[in-house]
Recover the amino acids of this structure.
């Protein structure tokens, strides 16, 4: 059975339902530290789980006969800079607890990393899986720690650790969790509501992105890939890159009166330290990563879904 921690975040709800379709509703246990909505409660098993409480996590792993743990609990880049101690606790000690449980109870463990694990000295175009990594945010530092500790436990103890470096994720029906790429979701809501958006990143700030359905499908195929097909434990994944001015132009094609303005804030420095595009050929080669949505497909689907709301 599968335990998903941090399941009420941007990725969790969709990932849990995809996993339930594939493995059965009762075999996927959603968890977080907040009360779920009625819909989420009705959709399948949901428990309280705080990644900082090892004993409580271990009780769930044993009582619920968990085989896989997917740890989505983390403070992202922007919020991590505002709450450094909390980010260190959740992203590092919380992860350490899940990794220790994976070793002790022979669990498959997946924990996301991020383009934020790269830094300003990393080559920024078509950034490869293996390259210089000197991240300059707490978030990036904790996520490179996740990668290194996960790979150590894999080599030393044989733990089946799996990790994907996600780009910015664009989602229609879930909110992003305080990252630097959140503008790419907010812009759609503002465009529909007010026909304008004041962007906290400059017009040319190009970042790697992907659409949530591709992220979820890709994560499930990575999770279920046979171990022998993995030539590495951590993989870059991305679909397309765009800048605020490029996405604004795409939206303006569909909503002609849409206008964007720019007021870069502290997140500009974070974005400028990240890759502009990722090389994810190893993920595509080893376990069939592919994105079904290109930039135009994502824009059309986002506007269609949000228009319905
Ligand atoms: C963030 N959305 O902005 C997250 C993600 C690549 C960015 O890790 O922090």
């Amino acid at each position: 059975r599968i335990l998903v921690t941090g399941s009420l975040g941007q990725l969790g709800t969709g990932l849990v339902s995809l996993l339930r379709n594939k493995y059965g509703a009762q075999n996927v246990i959603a968890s977080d530290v907040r009360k779920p909505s009625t819909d989420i409660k009705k959709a399948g098993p949901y428990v309280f789980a705080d990644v900082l409480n090892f004993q409580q996590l271990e009780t769930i792993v044993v009582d619920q006969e968990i085989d896989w743990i997917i740890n989505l609990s983390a403070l992202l880049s922007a919020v991590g800079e505002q709450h450094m101690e909390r980010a260190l606790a959740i992203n590092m000690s919380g992860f350490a607890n899940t990794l220790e449980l994976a070793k002790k109870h022979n669990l498959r463990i997946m924990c996301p990393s991020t383009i934020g694990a790269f830094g300003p000295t990393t080559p920024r175009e078509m950034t490869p899986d293996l390259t210089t990594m000197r991240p300059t945010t707490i978030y990036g530092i904790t996520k490179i720690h996740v990668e290194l500790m996960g790979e150590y436990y894999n080599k030393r103890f044989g733990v089946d650790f799996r990790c994907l470096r996600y780009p910015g994720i664009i989602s229609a029906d879930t909110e992003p969790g305080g990252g630097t790429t959140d503008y790419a979701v907010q812009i759609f809501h503002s465009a529909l509501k007010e026909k304008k958006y004041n962007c906290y990143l400059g017009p040319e700030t190009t970042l790697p992105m992907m659409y949530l359905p591709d992220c979820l499908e890709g994560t499930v195929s990575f999770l279920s890939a046979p171990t022998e097909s993995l030539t590495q434990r951590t993989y870059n994944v991305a679909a397309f890159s765009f800048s605020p001015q490029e996405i604004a132009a795409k939206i303006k094609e569909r909503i002609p009166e849409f206008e964007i303005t720019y007021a870069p804030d502290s997140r500009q420095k974070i974005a400028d330290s990240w890759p502009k595009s990722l090389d994810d050929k190893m993920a595509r080669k080893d376990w069939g990563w592919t994105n079904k949505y290109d930039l135009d497909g994502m824009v059309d689907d986002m506007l269609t879904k949000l228009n319905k709301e």
Observations:
- The two ends are 34 Å apart (CA to CA).
